[in-house]
Design a protein that fits this description.
Layout (H helix, E strand, L loop, with lengths): L5 E7 L19 E2 L3 E2 L2 H9 L4 E6 L3 H8 L13 E5 L14 H7 L1 H7 L3 E6 L2 E3 L3 H9 L5 E7 L9 E5 L5 E6 L8 E9 L1 H15 L11 H7 L3 E5 L4 E3 L3 H11 L26 E2 L4 E3 L2 E2 L4 E2 L2 E3 L2 E2 L4 E2 L4 E3 L2 E2 L4 E2 L4 E3 L1 E3 L4 E2 L4 E3 L5 E3 L4 E2 L4 E2 L4 E2 L6
Parallel strand pairs: 1-4, 1-6, 4-5, 8-12, 14-17, 15-18, 16-19, 17-20, 18-21, 19-22, 20-23, 21-24, 22-25, 23-26, 24-27, 25-28, 26-29, 27-30, 28-31
Antiparallel strand pairs: 2-3, 6-11, 7-13, 8-11, 9-10
């Protein structure tokens, strides 16, 4: 019996405002993670290990940052003559052209392409979370359930639940209630932005909803589509038992890196049967020079450490000079921390130059330095600050 025909749509078009300075010049899926990876590597690697060869990536904001990383899709075995990787930029020429105004609106704009592909199941995923999942398992469960949508779910902290779509699950996995980013969440069971849809039924429903909401628009999947499917009793849940973390905010992004610094990280990114693939560059081995100290950290290729590094992630090309100290921080590619500077509990974007004797961050909220800035010698950037300050003219 042939495998079901599965199409994965990766939603990579949003600006990602919650990541602040990290997404000023790149799309959220292109944000680096764990030194050498990008966030979009997680869904694409899941596709590869799930034996799904048809993957469409919907891009809009800063699309070049995603396109440069994906290239022809070779790291994920998506460089194929037929099928494989396809980029879906905004377009003109039909009533569905123009800028996408939310995830459901984006799906509606691509509806004719999806119908033409004629998949048995449509998997729609975001690209701002860290997790491992066999999408085929979810597809198989969906196709045998009679549901119109299967929502992959996970448990989240009660004080964080209002950021997600929250469900109440009944007998047999039926979703009995769905609320999108509720002020007072009824449960802590959240949808983790992986959905398997029955394509024809879902697209027909989207057409009807588009007529119904009119100028208000379809907005996000959780605005109209998922609530309607839940009300009609055609939504089911698929619980994800393993690790999942949304890294769509600066604190969550920092916390996820701390998870991967643990002695036993939540996901083995080098697992022989399920490695995380990426389009990597060419870098020499990391160098730890005489007199340097490194403790509980991740060092990528091309890094050079002459100072002290503790509990931190150093991306390719980072330099920590003698006498500099980096603690509990994430340094993205090409950062230089000069002699006598300290960086504590900070996320430092690409190409930042932290001047000699600077003090960046400290105990408290996470400090964020924007891409390519030069922090003048001796500058103090307090804990929780954004440098440069986006509110300054």
């Amino acid at each position: 019996m042939p495998l079901p025909r599965v199409l994965v749509l990766v939603l990579a078009g949003g600006k990602g405002n919650r990541l602040e300075l990290l997404t000023e010049t790149r799309a959220k899926p292109a944000v680096p993670f764990a030194g050498v990876y990008r966030l979009i590597d997680f869904p694409l690697s899941n596709c590869q290990h799930s034996a799904i060869a048809d993957v469409w990536v919907s891009v809009q904001y800063q699309p070049q940052s995603v396109s440069e990383h994906l290239a022809n899709g070779r790291p994920w075995d998506l460089d194929r003559t037929t099928g494989g990787l396809m980029m879906l930029p905004p377009f003109q020429g039909s009533e569905r052209g123009g800028w996408t105004e939310g995830t459901a609106d984006g799906l509606w704009r691509q509806a004719e392409l999806v119908r033409g592909f004629d998949p048995d199941a449509l998997v729609v995923v975001s690209s701002d979370a860290v997790y491992k999942l066999d999408y085929r398992e979810v597809v198989d469960a969906h196709l045998g359930s009679g549901a119109e949508v299967t929502m992959v779910t996970t448990e989240v902290a009660a004080d964080d639940a209002a950021r997600y779509g929250i469900v109440r699950v009944g007998k047999g996995g039926a979703v009995e209630d769905y609320a999108y980013k509720p002020d007072e969440p009824a449960t802590t069971t959240a949808t983790n932005e992986v959905f398997v849809f029955s394509p024809a039924e879902t697209l027909d429903r989207l057409e009807a909803l588009a007529d119904e909401v009119g100028e208000e628009g379809l907005e996000d999947l959780g605005s109209h589509l998922l609530p309607a499917q839940t009300r009609d009793g055609v939504a089911r849940a698929f619980p994800l038992a393993g690790y999942w973390r949304d890294v769509g905010t600066v604190p969550a992004y920092w916390e996820a890196h701390q998870d991967f610094l643990a002695e036993d990280p939540p996901i083995d990114l080098d697992e022989r049967t399920w490695p995380l693939h990426t389009r990597g560059g060419r870098h020499s081995a990391a160098r730890v020079l005489d007199g340097a100290s490194v403790d509980g950290s991740l060092l990528s290729g091309g890094t050079r450490v002459a100072g002290a590094v503790r509990g931190s992630v150093l991306s390719p090309g980072v330099i920590v000079e003698a006498g500099a100290t980096v603690v509990d921080s994430v340094l993205l590619p090409g950062v230089r921390v000069r002699a006598g500077a300290t960086v504590t509990r900070a996320v430092v974007d690409d190409g930042v130059d932290v001047g000699a004797g600077c003090s960046v961050g400290g105990d408290g909220d996470i400090t964020l330095l924007g891409r390519g800035v030069r922090v003048p010698d001796g500058t103090e950037v307090p804990a929780g600050a954004r440098f440069p300050d986006p509110d300054d003219d």
